[in-house]
Design goal:
Blueprint lengths: L3 H14 L4 E9 L2 E8 L4 E5 L4 E8 L1 E6 L2 E6 L3 E3 L5 E5 L3 E8 L2
Antiparallel strand pairs: 1-2, 2-9, 3-8, 4-7, 4-9, 5-6, 5-8
Length: 105
């Protein structure tokens, strides 16, 4: 069992100490299912990248902006969003921690 609140605190502290402003950990790897906690300091960006076949993003702390093609959506703590099935990026609008759930082929 994972304590998401404790992991969010730990990885946010690690991200604040990291030169790139990020910290992540793979929590679940079961066949095609993967869940990772990702912490990012304010202003940190995960550049555009390919989407897995299915994925969602749950914001545990802070605020982020999910971008895809010509649109973007701001998400706050407690919100859950499907990740578009296209190239996308993520930016931390403030110090933030997200739970990424992905199904990979």
């Amino acid at each position: 069992m994972h304590d998401l609140a404790a992991l969010a605190d730990e990885h946010l502290a690690n991200a604040r100490d990291d030169a790139h402003g990020r910290s992540a950990q793979l929590l679940v790897h079961d066949g095609v299912l993967r869940q990772s906690v990702i912490a990012m300091t304010s202003g940190t960006v995960l550049d555009e990248h390919n989407a897995p076949p299915a994925a969602s993003l749950q914001v545990l702390r802070g605020r982020v902006k999910l971008t895809a093609a010509d649109r973007s959506e701001e998400l706050s703590a407690g919100e859950l969003q499907m990740i578009p099935k296209e190239r996308h990026g993520l930016a931390a609008l403030e110090d933030a921690v997200v739970l990424l759930t992905a199904v990979n082929d």
